[in-house]
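Forwarding these from the shared drive since the link keeps breaking.
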Amino acid sequence: MPTEEFCNEDKEFICSSEATCPYCGHKDQDSWEIQEVEEDTESTCGNCDKTYNVRKEIYVSFVSWKK
């Protein structure tokens, strides 16, 4: 997955490797501390102080090769 991209055509959801404020684009450096997986969590931006929803999603991939 790219570092940051819009997840839908309406550009209302941001997919990123860090929680990103949809108002000012600030990236939360402590995103890894979000405990809930695939549940909406309310977050307050450390830059513009606006509240937004964030969801932690985990993707698993496997790598295999010849022995």
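-- next protein --
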Amino acid sequence: MSYDGFTHTGLSVLEHTIDDLRETPVFVACLAADAALPDGCRACELLDICGGGYLPHRFGRGRQFHNESLHCVDLKIVLRHVRAVIRQDLQPLVAAGVLPTSP
């Protein structure tokens, strides 16, 4: 499904339409990749933030895009840290009633 040249469509913005793009294998594969999220991603509290990771980082020959990002562990560390810092920084505004409490 993914190989050198896979993203080459042969299309030109001067000669083709968006509908032409929608029919290419790369476009179809990218749409299907969202449905191919692994169970670990679907259950993750950070899915709304990372979206399953950068698509090329999810590809594997056996399972195509049905893999966690190869950076998943590191992304979780960074995103959890950023969330904690933002929550801490916003706490005075929450305590003052300016912002609502968040989950």
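The chain is about 45% helix and 0% strand. Residues 18-95 form one domain.

- D.
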